[in-house]
Amino acid sequence: MWLVLIERLMRNRLAVIGGVLVIGLFIVAILAPFIAPYQPDYIDRYHILDPPSSKHLLGTDDIGRDVLSRMLYGSRVSLSVGFVAVGISTIIGIVFGAIAGYYGGIIDRIIMRFVDVMLSIPSFFLILSVIAFVGPSIWNIMIIIGLTSWMGVARLVRAEFLSLKSREFVLAARAIGASDLRIIFKHMLPNSLAPVIVNAVLGVASAVLLESALSFLGLGVQPPRPSWGNILKAGQANIEIAWWLSVFPGIAILITVLSYNLFGEGLRDALDPRIWERR
Amino acid sequence: MVTYLFKRAVELSVTLFGITLLSFFILHLAPGKPTDVLTELNPKITPEARERLEKYYNLDKPIIVQYLLWLKRVVRLDFGESFSTDRRPVWQKIKERIPITLTINILSMLLILLIAIPIGVTSATRQYSLYDKITTVVVFVGFAMPGFWLALLLMMLFGVQLQWLPISGIKSLNYENLSFFGKILDMGKHLVLPVFVSAFGGLAGISRYMRSSMLEVIRQDYITTARAKGLPENKVIYRHALRNALLPIITILGLSVPGLIGGSVIFEQIFSIPGMGRLFWLSVMQRDYPLIMGLLTIGAFLTLLGNMLADFCYALVDPRIRRQ
What we know:
- The complex is a heterodimer.
- By secondary structure, chain A is an all-alpha fold.
- Chain A is built from 13 helices and no strands.
- By secondary structure, chain B is an all-alpha fold.
- The mean pLDDT of chain B is 80.
């Protein structure tokens, strides 16, 4: 099954590009301490707001730190926020979606109404309000993004469960007396994971975007810890004199989000039986 | 149609009730009395402000009573007083900022429709052509583009380099001395970038939806019939197909309202526009809790209104729903 999936993915050029970039970003994040020319918080007092040069390839920021080094370390922040947030939202979404889809009836109605409520609040408002109460930090950001982005997963899992519920293997499991928990996690969940995985890959992209926006507003990852968003914040403050602060971190965000989106869409096509049965 | 709208209105009021519950829950997120935590976290709060807050939320009463009493006030748009030095009622501060945020959001919604629908339709009618492939790539890049970064780039290009457009506020310093048309032109110039930036995020999505919706419609039998009876292709596409293809777009537009309102925080902060979004950002920075709660509730309410409006339009244009 895995071989088939990989073969299908390889046929999709854009998905391959996305996948290669995703792996490349991982390697960069892991190797950041070895490839960064400077420590991320090393201050070069004689080169403040220097344009890109051979000494500082992407220039320096408003207190003389090397932008390239900060961006390399920033990729660790972005990816860890993306993955932890998606992990949280996927787990919450699976639990709510599975309960709603499996039990149905009034439980289903209450959970789905809750999903509607969450979806109709501007999520950016919700996230900011919670941050106002708990304070901004990288951990809080991860948790809050996770807690406010599980609704899509819940809907997906619920829909899968509704269609799986009356399938023979589930009825058979119930007939031999398997418990609800066993049926949900052992039998139904593995059969409904495909869209959840696609959703998670795409979710990383939107979590990275959200984190950068929050850090840009000064309500996300707090300095001195580097993040692409808070470098851009310095870029806005110095927009008239230091274009490199605004341009490079944005390109990094764009490439990251784009590669996760391309890879996710490719995965969706590769996992979609309707596309492959026709051939 | 009346029953349909009534049903939706009931559903939405249940949602609104849920929103107030959630807002209230967020206020009580922190352990202990909310005011204890507020005062610890916020050195700006004076003892009097704390007392006012305790009284406002009836913190000595059981939590359900607290909620009901709070709800009773919120219904009358009483959100308490702001913590900031002006101590003005929260609703007043929000009220004067709603028009500007709504104007920008409505303008950007119109811009989205004006650009995204033609793009979606043309790339659907020329599926797999070079044009279609190029727009697909542009849409993918558009999805990945952080709106605030685009804003920075545009500010650098049009504001700093070319000096064509102002980069902050909604009025020039000499605004009061301008003629009527001068005033309109001045405001227009200030709004170009913010409106474009806030529309940008929606452009990619809506043109994509428009394309797939159009593709679905032009495969249907009645389109073949229209072609078979010899109608010119333009008429088939723009008179027969477009009408039905637009239906799902109304729903998508309704669903994109929360994103637009939430997005105002970012672009209003970047362009220093005195709207709800910037007020929200300021209130979070200053931990002005009554203001935060008020804005959260009002923002959610506006979103619901937007959804309701979308439902109404949908019922208006789709006879199948009207007759249900």
